Amino acid sequence: MLRDMCPHRFAPLSKGKIISDQLQCPYHGLRFNSNGQCVFNPHGDGVVPKAAVTRTYPVLEKFGLVWVWMGQKAADPAKLPNFDFMDDTRWTYVKGHIHGSGYYELFTDNILDLGHAAFLHTGLSAPAFTIGKRHVFQDGDTVWSNVSHPNDFISDIMNNMFNSHGKRFDAWTDVQWTAPGSMSLLSYYAEPGTPKEDGHMHTSIHVMTPESPDTTHYFWAFGRDIHPDNEEFSAKLRAGIEYAFEEEDKPMIALQQAQVGDRDIMSMRPVLLAGDAGAVRARRMLRKLIAQEQSNGEEASDQKQSVDA
Ligand code: FES
Ligand SMILES: [Fe+2]
């Protein structure tokens, strides 16, 4: 991946176009190869200045996403979250992307505590998220934030999927967070009193990528094994999910960001409720991993390089 800044007059290269495997800057037309090296100068004698290089970052393509390493280290597949189910043909996915106002941890909090569903999302609301039993624990460098709730009603979006309006289920929702902001969310719905594995299941991922201190790219995918080839069903499902994320979560997080500003939300001494345990653990783990990285000198040298570049 190339840094989004041309070394000439610093135009965003992302607005350029690809010409014969080279990226042409949209402003004065310098062209760069995939190593960030300028290889074509349309001006004057055409000599390419030595300094005409833009920084590159290592990437990996996995689980249908491109993962970028913004620091000094090489890409390390061991650091990716476990999204194996994304490559499993059993699941049919609808996918989407949201660009939102808000520090990325505010978006992460939103998934680690689904207790907001009853108040913000009528279509996704289910008693389990508010009164279910919570089980939060660490697993290596990851954090699980799980909820279970027996014999109760489930959300409309799930009822539409299972055609189960008015039925009760035992329900489990297991969220696994991997630093810095990737989460899998696995939901299980079983006949009351029957094992979790015998019920319906669906998968989803929620990947938060910080763009700036107060904006975030949110990539999501939702997998089902019901009506796999039904495109009309996919379109309805996508519309329901997009409505919840775009029209309900996103504006609320933007308002929250406006209140919090550039402060760390934990420094404001927030009141903590039962559902906050997962988000608190994840923040603690993230800070520990950042401190480890900084003690290796990685982040400091990266910042210097960015400023000097
Ligand atoms: S800013 Fe890119 S060529 Fe001038
Ligand atoms: Fe939400």
Could you explain how this protein is built, in words?
The radius of gyration is 22 Å and the shape is globular. Helices cover 28% and strands 29% of the residues. With 309 residues, it is an alpha+beta fold. Strand 10 and strand 11 (182-190) form a beta hairpin. It has 7 helices and 13 strands. It has helices at 104-112, 117-120, 127-131, 156-162, 231-260, 277-295, 298-308, and strands spanning 17-19, 22-24, 31-32, 38-40, 59-62, 65-68, 92-101, 133-139, 142-152, 169-178, 182-190, 200-212, 215-224. The model is unreliable at 300-309 (pLDDT under 50). The protein folds into 2 domains: 1-56, Rieske [2Fe-2S] iron-sulphur domain (Rieske Iron-sulfur Protein); 59-295, Alpha-Beta Complex (Naphthalene 1,2-dioxygenase Alpha Subunit, Chain A, domain 1). The strands form 3 sheets. It has a 7-stranded antiparallel beta sheet. The protein binds FE2/S2 (inorganic) cluster and fe (ii) ion. Residues 6, 8-9, 11, 25, 27-30 line the site of FE2/S2 (inorganic) cluster (FES). Keywords: 2Fe-2S, Iron, Iron-sulfur, Metal-binding, Methyltransferase, Oxidoreductase, Plasmid, Transferase. Residues 1-68 form the Rieske domain. Pfam families: Rieske, VanA_C. It comes from Sphingobium indicum (strain DSM 16413 / CCM 7287 / MTCC 6362 / UT26 / NBRC 101211 / UT26S). It is an enzyme of class 1 (oxidoreductase).
